[in-house]
Amino acid sequence: MSPNYMRSFSEGCLRPPTVIGQFHTLFFGSVRMFFLGVLGFAVYGNEALHFSCDPDKREVNLFCYNQFRPITPQVFWALQLVIVLVPGAFFHLYAACKNIKQEDILQNSFYTGFYIFSVFLRIILEAVAFWLQIQLFGFKVNAIYMCDVGALEKKFNVTRCMVPEHLEKTIFLIAMYTFTVITVILCVAEIFEISCRRLGILKNQ
C-alpha cells in the first residue's frame, strides 16, 4: 500500500466525517485507552502476586487464581478495544483505497450506508463485550473467593482465597461498564447526526 493510502487511512481514523464521530475517536482513543493502560496496570498489575489462599502454597494459589481469572481483565478490555476498532478501520481502509475524501462520505448514499453499517457493528460488538464482561467479572469483586480445589486431590474441596484491592477493582469494573455505555450512546448519537445531515436538518461539514 502506498504512503498516500496510509496517510488517507490514518486521517480517516483520526478524523471521521461526523462531529460526534470525532469526539468518539477522542474519547475512545485518549480517555479510554489511557484509563486502561495506566490505571488498569496499577490496579491489576500485581494481582496474581498478592492473591493468596489457605493454605498459602504456590500450587494452590496458582490453581485458584486461574480459576478466579480465566482471562485477566486487562487482556479482555484490550481485546475489546481492538475488536471494536475493526469495523471503523475496515471502512476507512476502503475509503483510502477508493480515494474517498471524508467530506464526501455523507454526500453519497452508498458510502453513508456503509459507514452507518460500520457504526452499527461497533454497537453490536460493544453490547457483546458488555455481556461477556458481566459473565466473566460481574459487577462486584468480593474480598473472599471460595475456590474449588478438588481437582488437586487435596483433603479439602473448597478453600478461601483473599482477593487484593477488591474495592479498587469494583470501582474499575464500574468505570469500564460506564465507558462501554458512553461509547454505545456516542455511536447511536452519530447515527442520529448522520440522519439529520442527510435530511438537511444539520448542515454538512
UniProtKB/TrEMBL annotation:
Gene3D superfamilies: Gap junction channel protein cysteine-rich domain. GO terms for biological process: cell-cell signaling. The keyword Chloroplast does not apply. Belongs to the connexin family. Beta-type (group I) subfamily. It is a multi-pass membrane protein. Its main location: membrane. It comes from Tricholaema leucomelas (pied barbet). It is found in: Cell membrane. The chain crosses the membrane at residues 25-44, 75-97, 109-132, 171-192. The gene is Cx23. One of its GO terms (cellular component) is connexin complex. The keyword Transmembrane helix applies. Residues 125-194 form the Connexin cysteine-rich domain. It comes from the Eukaryota. Keywords: Cell membrane, Disulfide bond, Membrane, Transmembrane, Transmembrane helix, Transport. This is Gap junction epsilon-1 protein. A connexon is composed of a hexamer of connexins. It holds the Pfam family Connexin. GO terms for molecular function: gap junction channel activity.
